[in-house]
Write a structure and sequence with these properties.
The complex is a heterodimer of chains A (about 90) and B (about 425). Chain A is mostly beta strands and about 90 residues long. Chain A has one helix at about 35-45, and strands at about 5, 10-15, 20, 50-60, 65-70, 75-85. In chain A, strands 3-4-5-6 form a four-stranded antiparallel beta sheet, with no helix packed on it. Chain A has a two-stranded antiparallel sheet with strand order 1-2. Classes of the chains: A mainly beta (about 90), B alpha/beta (about 425).
Chain lengths: ~90, ~425
Amino acid sequence: MFLINCPYCGERDQQEFKAGGEAHIERPKQPTELSDDEWAEYLFMRKNIKGVQFERWNHAHGCRKWFNMVRDTSNDEIKAIYKMGEKPPA
Amino acid sequence: MRNKYSIFSLIKNALSYHENWQRAWKDPTPKKEYDAVIVGGGGHGLATAYYLAKKHNMNNIAVVEKGWIGGGNTGRNTTIIRSNYLWDASAGLYDHALKIWEGLSQELNYNVMFSQRGVMNLAHNLQDVRDLKRRTHANRLNGIDAVYLSTEEVKKFCPIINTSPDIRYPVLGGTLQRRAGTARHDAVAWGYARGADAMGVDIIQNCEVKGIKRNGDSVEGIETTKGFIKTKKVGVVAAGHSSVIANMAGLRLPLESKPLQALVSEPVKPIIDTVVMSNAVHAYVSQSDKGELVIGAGTDDYVSYTQKGSHQIVEGTLNAILELYPIFSRMRMLRQWGGIVDICPDASPILSKTSIKGLYFNCGWGTGGFKATPGSGDLFAHTIANDEPHKLNAAFNLNRFVSGDLVDEHGAAAVAH
């Protein structure tokens, strides 16, 4: 349990948010040309990092907007929050 | 030679104030090379080593564990054992385990306190009723004992449940698997460790894997905090940390690791003599032999390796528990903890070879791996020894995420994930 600084609403309790999983997984541009291996990679395979991970979150019980977060999954420390479409911090 | 535990050894050791019990397993330093190394000294890993030695004559093997054996999810789960899964593949896998549980204490000469007290799953709405009836039929077609109970029969089997029709989620019925129950989680790890050690398996604790050495597409050995260990076969049974180990070998797995919480109350006199689970409100409860209520809560929806979990998850579970069991309203909770569970997209495990020769993964057990411990060890040992899966775990291969042949037990497994 932790606080999340929503880029639109400010700091709120984590239970107002819904985790949306790994960020920056690009939707295939030509789905009809994908092999089964590539589909599996896109749909199911995840980095599941212990450490700094890039994720999507949704302020489900607030503004309902999506945004990105950089979080250390080994201690739940939030490193950065940035809006959809913005470049991830290095 | 290992001394056999018996009433006579108990009396003999009582006379010397229990100061002369033999060590149950050794504390060896790792050899330079093994025929196989199991990564992860939980119940599943130790069971794998035990069956590799016992059934496949692989005695020159080791189990490496980064902490102490049974200190991960083996010591953190709510000890429920059942096999009432919907799909044929799951029914085969989990009932194989249940059948081994039934003779495990005798086989290991170690009391794992397996108690077939029954597991009851409750229905709270019409869709639950339909799903549970369907699952009962599916179970019986697979030779697994299951009965459907009316609300009155639920009340009769477990009188402290509130079956009043005016609660928020009224009890409309339930299923019962009488062969299901609980076991002592630590004893399972200790029993398998003692059994494996007696057959020559090296159990190496405080030994963390830091890397997997490959030669092209084959495994050559593992880098650990106690040095390099050469081996051609590595079986990874690392639960929540499976992705971390996979990453060392350059593999990606379809897993997400999340905290799952459980809690126990202060000990009280016997009040509930079965296990009751409820999918819709996500609450399940049983009572340990010490008298504590053992309560399972849910997972958080974000990836985390913190072994903590969020407060509102516990709060939601306790709300449901109190509505179903008003008699617990003044119980105090004694301890709460989290374990990191590795969840597959289809909520079924992976017991599989990989694209790297000699590297095997046993993972993805998610929120319900304890029940499968003996069967998982047996089938994973078969897979490692023969380099081919047993027919009971063939469906649980890693390639199912490519072929699309998933074993979707999400809603069907009788409990939410």
